[in-house]
Amino acid sequence: MEKRIIHIDMDAFYAQVEQHDNPELKGKPVIVGGRSFNRGVVATASYEARKFGVHSAMPTKTAHKLCPDGIFVHPRFERYKEISAQIREIFLSYTELIEPLSLDEAYLDITELVSKETSSREIALSIQSDIFEKTGLTSSSGISYNKYLAKIASGMNKPKATTVIHYDNVLEILHALPICKFPGVGKVTEEKMLGLGIKNGKDLYDISKNDLILKFGKRGESLYNKARGIGTNELTVQRERKSVGKETTFNYDRNDDKEILGVLEDLSNKVGIRLDDRQLAGRVVTVKIKTGDFETHSKQMMTMDPVFKGEDIYHYAYNLYHEVKEQDVPIRLIGVTVSSIEERLYRNMTIYDFIMQ
Ligand code: DCP
Ligand code: MG
């Protein structure tokens, strides 16, 4: 059966986050990356900066030359990860068939969600609007019957676009596509292609499979298929989560129980929120510490009931901490994990509660 795959990719991700969090940067050429003039590299640039020719992986020095009025910003990975997790939650509210590719892009298999009443385009638009509502950020999506075509589609009309490639228009689109836009064709392959006179998908289409294998070895066949709209539609879905944990590394070694327990309580609450959001609970709590001289120690115990509330997790974590922490040995890291995970039938009830009623 024909599948419907969406590829979603945030627009100018890091730069857009910086513009969102600091409205003074809106509408301005923002360049995120290493600010060191001699060694820094651009991670990404806002669309305003791209007009000057600035792009990912370019040395900061070159970006300065091309765009002297650019605003150079250091990346804040924690923030990008946080937004990535929010986006993941939105995907999960549609389907569990998700293959994340990086912080800002993923494939979703929405075959089962498409119906007479709801087209794949409508589903894509709805996901994009949920993302905007939750994060204030725009994204682009591509829809097709396999993965690499969905990825090509999402890049075709960026930003804020939704693009469909189907059997009727696939060859027309692929023929006109510059060779560097084919997934898997990096800088080196592009150079080699251009050297052989292959500038676009049409040039690639016109080369025989044998010649491609001769020139590109094992990848020849895949390139031959890519020129023809042939590719896999099977997602590599992440395995079900086996544990939920949080840890903190201190900026100096700590020994004060009260202080450390405060952090442990905070971590327990965060783990609780994550479990609760996913309607999960777990039967084993583990506390891990790393001492100032990098020794790792951990202790775990079974819980009476499956736990998911921060306060319950902390109750176990508190006792485990006292078992694992040695007096007068400062620690640099503490973490708490809940494992042996199971699903909760109802939002505020564990399966156990349910059976007991
Ligand atoms: N990134 C990076 N170094 C690269 C490429 C990307 O650090 N060489 C980071 C910064 C990007 C993020 O990954 O914001 C996502 O990469 P994309 O390729 O999706 O690029 P953008 O989201 O920035 O822009 P686009 O609108 O083209 O997707
Ligand atoms: Mg992107």
Strand content: 15-25%
Radius of gyration: 25 Å
* Terminal Cα span: 44 Å
Helix content: 25-40%
Q: Tell me which CATH architecture of the largest domain applies here.
A: 2-Layer Sandwich
- Low-confidence segments, ≥5 residues, pLDDT <50? 346-357
CATH superfamily of the largest domain: Reverse transcriptase/Diguanylate cyclase domain
CATH topology of the largest domain: Alpha-Beta Plaits
In total, how many beta strands? 12
Quickly count the domains: 3
Structural class: alpha+beta
If you average the pLDDT, what whole number results? 92
Catalytic activity: DNA(n) + a 2'-deoxyribonucleoside 5'-triphosphate = DNA(n+1) + diphosphate
Family: Belongs to the DNA polymerase type-Y family.
GO molecular function: damaged DNA binding; DNA-directed DNA polymerase activity; magnesium ion binding
EC number: 2.7.7.7
Characterization of the model:
By secondary structure, this protein is of the alpha+beta class. It has 3 domains: 1-164, Alpha-Beta Plaits; 170-228, 5' to 3' exonuclease, C-terminal subdomain (DNA polymerase, domain 1), CATH 1.10.150.20; 243-343, Dna Ligase, domain 1. It is 39% helix and 24% strand. The chain contains 14 helices and 12 strands. The protein has a 5-stranded mixed sheet with strand order 5-6-1-7-8. The longest helix has 21 residues, at 257-277. It is globular. The model is unreliable at 346-357 (pLDDT under 50).
